[in-house]
Amino acid sequence: PLEMTTDAWRQRSAADLRAKPALLDLLTLFVLKDLDLLEHVFAFFPEVAISRETASELMRMVQPFSGSIMREQCVDLQNRLRPHLGKILQPPAGPHEEDDEKPPARDTKALMATGRFTLYSDDALLRFYLLREPHAATGMCTLDLLLALEEVGGLTTWDGGAKIAQLCEWNVRLQIPFRCQLALIPQPGRAVTSVQQGKALIEQAKEFMSIASALWGPKADFDPSRRNFATAAWLMLQDLNQSEVMLASFFAVWIDRVQ
């Protein structure tokens, strides 16, 4: 599975992320397309950059005789990028050392060496390889974008949580901010009067359950699952509008997932 963040990840401000144009790789462009976030990217950044080798690879994959099983996806991506060509930089990578790296990675490495860009890649291993630190000030991923959009009012916390839930559905590994997790829990107020009713209501919240399955499911380690539940429950207790029944229902959902 794709690893988007590591334990070292920390949220950064929107102003910090906007300080330089984001340099996007092909994998990240597909993630943004499938999450329906491309419009948000171009609204958030004054300019973005795509290396010429990455653009050439996309062009090759859309050719009818390319043999790519992702041709339709590539055509869709190309069509979605077309209205934003005026905001897309395609800088020359300049000279670089001959090595065994594939051209897109080689160009990205050369462009990052100029200090002009923020590397926007959803592959934490690639960020580590190119930056020697997966969450350095010169790197970011889509989780960073989602939280920055929340900061500037481009997305609600629920919207950001729903996008994170979709990433969990795709088995992407990433850190999940508690506020995004808790925003997906239904808030019926005092209308729910039994734990059984509250538990059923939570389990009907598809987005929340996608995150719950990732954090608490059979493939998750018990200790991190327990810590996540304990912190989330403590945060729910701080909410004066949260009913005791919904808190007990939350506990019942966790018990079901870790058994």
Topology:
Blueprint: H1 14-17, E1 22-24, H2 26-34, H3 38-44, E2 48-50, H4 52-62, H5 71-81, E3 88-89, H6 103-112, E4 118-120, H7 124-131, E5 139-140, H8 142-152, H9 157-169, H10 178-183, H11 195-203, H12 206-216, H13 222-238, H14 244-258
Parallel strand pairs: 1-2, 1-4, 2-3, 4-5
What features would you describe in this structure?
- By secondary structure, this protein is mainly alpha-helical.
- 55% of the residues lie in helices and 5% in strands.
- The chain has helices spanning 14-17, 26-34, 38-44, 52-62, 71-81, 103-112, 124-131, 142-152, 157-169, 178-183, 195-203, 206-216, 222-238, 244-258, and strands at 22-24, 48-50, 88-89, 118-120, 139-140.
- Strands 3-2-1-4-5 form a 5-stranded parallel beta sheet.
- Helix 4 packs across helix 5 (71-81), helix 8 (142-152) runs antiparallel to helix 9 (157-169) and helix 11 crosses helix 14 (244-258).
- The protein starts with 13 loop residues before the first helix and ends with a helix.
- The mean pLDDT is 91.
Please outline what is shown here.
The protein is mainly alpha-helical.
Shape: elongated
Strand content: 5-15%
User: What's the oligomerization state?
Assistant: single chain
Strand order in space, largest sheet:
3-2-1-4-5
Distance between the termini: 24 Å
Rg from Cα? 21 Å
Structural class category: mainly alpha
Q: Describe the sheet with the most strands.
A: 5 strands, parallel
Number of helices: 14
Helix content: 40-55%
Keywords:
elongated; mainly alpha; 5 strands; five-stranded parallel beta sheet
